[in-house]
Amino acid sequence: MNTVWTWPELETRLFEEADIYLEVRGDRLHTRIARQWALALLEQEGGDRRVVEPAVILHDVGWSAVDPVKISAAFGVRADGKAEAREVNRIHEIEGASIARRILESLGYDERLTRRIVRIIERHDSTMEAGSLEERLVKDADKLWRYSGTGFWTEIERQEVDPRSYHRRLTLRRREWFLTRTAFRMAGEELQCRGRELEKRAPGQHRDSG
Ligand SMILES: [Fe+2]
Ligand SMILES: [Fe+2]
User: Fold this and answer.
1) CA neighbours within 13 Å on the CB side: how many for 86?
2) Which of 48, 54, 50, 59 minimizes the C-alpha distance to 134?
3) Average pLDDT of the chain?
4) Tens of pLDDT, residues 7-18
5) Segment 131-182, tens digit of pLDDT
6) Residue 160: domain span
7) Could you say which DSSP state residue 131 is in?
8) 208 belongs to a structural domain
């Protein structure tokens, strides 16, 4: 039977349920920031929050099922196109979909919405096509993390990449990654901010002090 949740209650429960899974790859912050992007996109683009928000909160729980040694092979833009990274990436989607289904069922969440959420999680990273507006928003919110102040510098440390070449990669990928005009525009604005941060840095400095 479906349980009727108030929205703040549901958000809190979803984050609580996801927490143990997100801890594995250090994805708590990524998830919180992706959720903020998702809310901003929902405001501009429309879409069903009952699908988008649970999907974005649960989208990366599947990393918990992947061998930690293999996880580093699948990190971010560096991993694009590598067969091993693709395989690991696929595991995190499939396992994530099944963990998300269990969580949503345990909360008595609406079955029809659950099916839509699980479908989005199951292909959130490996395909560029999107069957619905909600899927586009989740995919865009996930990628916007890399462009955000926190995400940009976190990924540079995590992936041990040069900040300027990372900035260039994100600039090149913007056109191919984003599925909504709003996310494309927001990513452009974020890139300008990251560009200004890079200009202020002394050569060789790894991170902003702020
Ligand atoms: Fe993911
Ligand atoms: Fe993600």
Assistant:
1) 6
2) 48
3) 91
4) 899 999 999 999
5) 999 999 999 999 999 999 999 999 999 888 999 999 999 999 999 999 999 9
6) 7-200
7) S
8) no
DSSP 32-79: HHHHHHHHHHHHHH---HHHHHHHHHHTTGGGGGS-HHHHGGG-TGGG
Using a CB cutoff of 5 Å, list residues around ligand 2, an ion: 60, 142
Number of domains in the chain: 1
CATH number of the domain encompassing residue 78 = 1.10.3210.10
How far apart CA 20 and CA 192 sit, in angstroms, is: 35
Residue 206 included in any domain: no
pTM of the model: 0.92
CA of 90 to the centre of ligand 1 (A): 9
CB 96 within 8 A of CB 62: yes
**Which distant-in-sequence residues (6+ apart) come within 8 Å of 25 by Cβ?**
60, 63, 64, 66, 68, 71
Amino acid at 18: A
In a domain, 22, yes or no: yes
**What is the C-alpha separation between 79 and 60, in angstroms, rounded?**
17
**Helix and strand counts by DSSP (H, E) for the chain:** 10, 0
Ligand lying closest to the C-alpha of residue 66: 1
Q: How far is the CA of 125 from the centre of ligand 1 (A)?
A: 6
* Residue 19 in this model has a pLDDT that exceeds 70: yes
The answer to whether residue 210 is domain-embedded is no
The rounded Å distance from CA 49 to ligand 2 centre is: 18
